[in-house]
Amino acid sequence: MKRWTGWQNWVVVAAGAYTLLAMTWTNALGYSNGYMMTGGIALIVIGAVNLAAPGMPVAEWIQVAVAALVVASPWMGSFASGMHGVAWNTWIPGVVALVASAMAIQPAMKSYREHHPVGSV
Fold first, then answer.
1. What is the pTM for the complete model shown?
2. Cα gap 44→49, rounded to integer Å
3. Cα→Cα distances 19→65, 78, 94, Å
4. Is pLDDT at 13 greater than 60 in this prediction?
5. Is the dihedral of CA 102, 54, 43, 100 positive or negative?
């Protein structure tokens, strides 16, 4: 894998940007802005890390965990039932990031194995 070419990680960065920007057109409810801002920034950062340094399966798994937390954030922040528009603007990019992250694990593992063969130190 070459740097800055993993489409899956670009999708994660875009999902993070959408989550972050969605705060501007949704009405805040409870801690929704904090969760959306934190989740959006976290997706952008981990996506950029995976773009800059591809072939690290651990970082891809961290990206999966961050995306899952973004999906869960409306329930964690208690804004899932109050205003569904705010929650949907978190769930949809979170699920997109989760699927893209899961799709990036296999190529990262393949790249890692190519550069770190078994038995080499």
1. 0.89
2. 9
3. 16, 17, 8
4. yes
5. negative
User: For helices 32-52 and 84-115, what crossing angle results, to 10°?
Assistant: 20
| Closest residue by Cα to residue 75 from 91, 98, 62, 89 | 91
36 contacts 23 by C-beta, under 8 angstroms: yes
- CB-CB contact of 7 with 97 (8 Å): no
List the structure tokens of 8.
């899956």
Report, as an integer, the average pLDDT of 29-42. Answer: 92
| 39-83 confidence digits (pLDDT tens) | 999 999 999 999 999 888 999 999 999 999 999 999 999 888 877
Where along the chain do its domains lie? 7-113
